[in-house]
Design a protein that fits this description.
Structural class of chain A: alpha/beta
Helix content of chain A: 55-70%
Oligomer: heterodimer
Shape of chain B: globular
Number of helices of chain B: 14
Strand order of the largest sheet of chain A: 2-1-3-10-4
Shape of chain A: elongated
Structural class of chain B: alpha/beta
Helix content of chain B: 40-55%
Largest interface: A-B, 20 and 20 residues
Order of helices and strands of chain B: EEEHEEHEHHHHEHEHEEHHHHEHEEH
Bound molecules: adenosine-5'-triphosphate, magnesium ion
Radius of gyration of chain B: 22 Å
Number of helices of chain A: 23
Number of strands of chain A: 10
Distance between the termini of chain A: 44 Å
Distance between the termini of chain B: 31 Å
Largest sheet of chain B: 6 strands, mixed
């Protein structure tokens, strides 16, 4: 049993080694960059504080406070100021790394035996010579220990950076949570842990060697870190490296946005001369939206229902798809200067799902069929669904259905809870791949409580002005892709692990949208 | 060489550590500062190389006010030996000793020669010890390195703040003797702080007794014992007159015991009569420029009188005093 899982996991990892290498490299890059910045700030600061001892307590206290802010909160707090992506992640990681380095530098220097300081003064050393010949070498093991603490802290915290689209091993973990796939979680978590252990060991070694020798171990660590951080920038500076693309499109986390994103790229690049860079798995809805607003990306796939409820804070004027689309399009244009192009056919809306088994036993087809038995059922809903006006409250109001018990749970856990019969009803997205995997049935929304959720490209106006041909090109997807087609494609990517780009291309060819 | 002119030091917290002291130290002199704890010895010493600056008065080194010297040059001119030894633990012995010559930009060859020369001088075999770290040396060896580190840049002046007080008595005595020999060879001007009166007597050409930030008396060891000017000085150095007035025969019998009669290793030298008092005898020893002189009782050779033996006798007399409740230290 265990052996099988190990084998499976090994095979799984080998298949995805490309993804692992890329995210691992991003992770190392991000961590080392943050460490370097922290060292370049905290070491001189620690030295200076020894000259201005009165300032020491408040400054060190401030960095200590920075460290107590939960990492998620810090990441979120930074978005309005520096947006999302790698930069804010590095700022946040740096903030965490400051304290150990600063405190250890300050203390290490301050705790040098006063007799040694007096001896060095009596020899005619000035404060620079004292620093270089006496204080730093003696404080070095302590400083290196601070750097080590920071590094381990950074490597761990950096997994959260995926939440704001900074990439790294956290991407794999997020993907795993999203798909309820433990292998992906492990593929992210195990290398992250190993990476922390590796840095710990390397820096511990440097720390031992640093015992009173000189600045060498610290200089070595900094130089190696610099090389790692700078090497890709150097590579990019070379003439044959990729040029920056004209248009950058993002996709939220998940298979569906990634497939559609690839279609956008294929379409634009086959219809026009523009180059398109895509950033799949960019982040959650809010992060991706903020990025488009800030102009960090030029557009992404958004749903009409989300735009109306989340960004415009309005109620849908109607449950008619076309009217809802008009409402979303006008609102987004006026409020945010973002342009909704034509929507696709399928809806990725809320649905209540049950297993085919129960459906047959109880003869259930529509939500209203639940009325008689709801009080005997346990529902497993996401917290969001329980909370949203157009979620469970709407079911209660319009259908008058009250479940016997409602358990709030993580999105990834719902389908399994359903299969293991802990719950009998879950909320689902109508195109999700696990609908196929677990043989689930989406009950018909016969009273129309769920607002329309049609997907369409949401683009910055500036990019449409600069690259006007995009509009016609992307509109060719308007009215395409049925719910079944989307569910099928999601299944192929999520469950059968096909490449999203290939799935997208096949669809476009089959529909005659691009040439084969 | 060094002169203090109405020097005062009051620390920020109001402690008056030094209250207007005047003295001068001649070139090549071994000048000892002694006094009870808190009397301002260290403060006075550190004002010479400006580790502490006076609040009033003037200090001159080689005729120029310490404030008019370039600070680095002043400190290169003055070696400093700490009670805590304070060798840099992260450097080898060689690196510790080589620090000042390096800062003075001596050529590497000259530095290496200097290190070997100094280590040999204090009996540390360079090959064996050069590349060790301070922690791999005994306390006595460390303080030897402390002394030669201060000497490495060939300073004119050497300041020593209780350099031997942390050592065990045997090591201390060795180092004291080494320092006496060193002083004969290198002829530095030395200012030495101690609160061990025996050490002061053994080493000092002049002794400055301090009390509560003031100078109680400055004199040669001999005069200090014979003519203490205040009750404080008298009680501080102890009543040694009796021992100094003892006849040589008593001195030698005490040291040698009454065992077998030795024979004079080098007859035909100027001899000391055994009826001379110890103080007379020491004076003649001074004049003779010999390390020791033979003592004769009538025609019989009793043994040798050296400074060291004189001191040993004085010391044993002092401990005897202590036992009967004498007022020493
Ligand atoms: N940095 C300082 N700030 C305030 N007071 C000081 C300082 N250094 C020394 N003192 C005080 O000045 C006085 C003289 O101190 P000093 O160290 O010169 O004495 P000392 O004769 O060397 O004593 P000891 O034999 O114990 O070393 C003492 O009362 C001491 O407490
Ligand atoms: Mg002192």
């Amino acid at each position: 049993m265990t052996a099988n899982i190990l084998l499976d996991f090994t095979a799984f990892s080998i298949e995805r080694r490309e993804q692992l290498y890329i995210t691992l490299w991003e992770h190392v890059q991000m961590s080392l960059t943050a460490l370097l910045i922290a060292v370049f700030i905290a070491v001189p600061a620690g030295i200076l504080l020894n000259h201005y001892q009165k300032g020491a307590e408040p400054v060190i206290g401030t960095t200590a406070v920075l460290q107590t802010i939960p990492s998620l909160a810090l990441l979120g707090f930074l978005i309005p100021f520096i947006g999302i992506g790698t930069a804010p992640a590095i700022v946040a990681l740096t903030a965490y790394a400051l304290m150990p380095v600063l405190r250890n530098t300050y203390t290490g220097i301050r705790e040098v035996d006063p007799a040694l300081m007096e001896a060095s003064r009596s020899m005619g050393m000035d404060s620079r010579q004292q620093l270089l010949k006496v204080q730093l070498p003696l404080a070095m093991p302590m400083m290196m220990a601070g750097i080590r603490t920071s590094m381990v802290l950074i490597v761990g915290t950096a997994t959260l950076a995926a939440l704001i689209g900074a990439g790294g091993l956290g991407d794999l973990i997020m993907l795993g949570i999203n798909r309820a796939d433990n292998f992906y979680i492990l593929l992210g978590a195990i290398p992250a842990a190993l990476l922390a252990l590796f840095f710990d060991a390397v820096l511990r070694f440097a720390e031992k060697r640093s015992l009173g020798t000189s600045l060498k171990p610290m200089v070595a660590v900094v130089v190696i870190a610099l090389l790692v951080v700078v090497s890709p920038r150097l590579y990019q500076a070379l003439p044959f490296a990729d040029e920056e693309a004209d248009i950058v499109l993002a996709g939220k986390i998940g298979a569906e946005p990634e497939i559609i994103l690839n279609m956008y790229q294929e379409l634009i690049e086959s219809d026009t001369d523009y180059s398109v860079d895509i950033e799949p798995g960019f982040g959650t809805t809010d992060f991706t939206f903020e990025a488009a607003l800030a102009g960090e990306v030029d557009g992404y796939l958004e749903f009409t229902g989300t735009a109306i409820a989340d960004f415009l804070n309005e109620d849908p004027v109607s449950n008619d798809e076309q009217e809802a689309y008009e409402q979303a399009r006008e609102g987004m244009k006026e409020e945010y200067g973002l342009e909704f192009l034509e929507p696709m056919d399928y809806q990725n809306t809320y649905a209540l799902a049950i297993t085919e088994e129960i459906a047959e036993e109880e003869d259930l087809n529509a939500i209203s069929d639940l009325r008689g038995i709801a009080s005997e059922l346990t529902a497993g809903f996401t917290f969001e669904f329980i909370d949203r006006n157009d979620g469970y409250p709407a079911i209660q109001d319009v259908y008058g259905i009250e479940f016997g018990d409602v358990e709030g749970m993580d999105p990834g856990l719902r389908s399994e809870a359903l299969v293991s019969e802990d719950v009998q009803v879950i909320d689902a997205y109508s195109t999700d791949a696990y609908m196929i995997r677990y043989d689930l049935l989406a009950l018909e929304d016969d009273e129309n409580v769920f607002p329309p959720f049609n997907g369409a490209p949401l683009l910055r106006q500036e990019v449409l002005q600069d690259y006007p041909q995009i509009e016609d090109s992307l509109n060719r997807l308007g009215g395409m892709i049925t719910e079944e087609e989307m569910m099928e494609m999601n299944y192929r990517v999520d469950e059968e692990d096909e490449d999203a780009a290939e799935v997208a291309e096949e669809f476009l060819i089959a529909e005659g949208l691009i040439d084969g | 060489m060094i002169a203090f002119d109405r020097v005062e030091k009051t620390f920020k917290d109001g402690t008056a550590a030094v209250n207007g002291i005047n003295f001068h130290v001649n070139e090549g002199e071994f000048f000892v500062l002694i006094g009870p704890s808190g009397s301002g010895k260290t403060t006075a010493l550190k004002m010479i190389n400006r580790l502490i600056d006076p609040t009033a008065g003037h200090i001159y080194v080689e005729g120029t006010s310490v404030f008019e010297h370039n600070l680095k040059d002043l400190r290169y001119k003055i070696g400093y030996v700490l009670q805590q030894i304070a060798l840099f633990p992260h450097m080898t012995i060689k690196e510790n000793i080589g620090l000042i010559p390096e800062m003075k930009k001596w050529p590497q060859e000259k530095i290496d020669e200097r290190i070997d020369e100094l280590m040999t001088m204090v009996g540390l075999e360079p090959k064996t010890y050069k590349n060790r770290r301070p922690a791999e040396l005994s306390g006595g060896q460390q303080q030897r390195v402390g002394v030669i580190r201060a000497l490495a840049g060939d300073p004119d002046i050497l300041l020593m703040d209780e350099p031997f007080s942390a050592l065990d008595p045997i090591t201390r005595e060795q180092l004291q003797n080494d320092l006496v020999n060193l002083q004969k060879n290198i002829k530095k001007t030395i200012v030495f702080v101690t609160h061990d009166i025996n050490e002061a007597m053994l080493l000092g050409s002049r002794i400055c007794v301090m009390n509560k930030g003031e100078i109680a008396q400055i004199d040669t060891p001999d005069n200090l014992i014979r003519h203490p000017q205040t009750e404080f000085v008298r009680s501080f150095i102890g009543d040694r007159r009796n021992a100094w007035e003892d006849p040589l025969i008593k001195v030698l019998r005490t040291i040698e015991g009454e065992s077998d009669n030795p024979s004079d290793p080098q007859p035909d030298r100027a001899a000391l009569n055994s009826e001379l008092t110890l103080s007379e005898a020491v004076k003649r020893l001074d004049q003779s420029f010999e390390p020791s002189l033979p003592v004769y009782y009538q025609d019989g050779y009793l043994g040798e009188l050296s400074y060291k033996r004189a001191l040993t006798y004085l010391r044993s007399a002092q401990t005897a005093d202590k036992r009967v409740g004498g007022t020493i230290l």
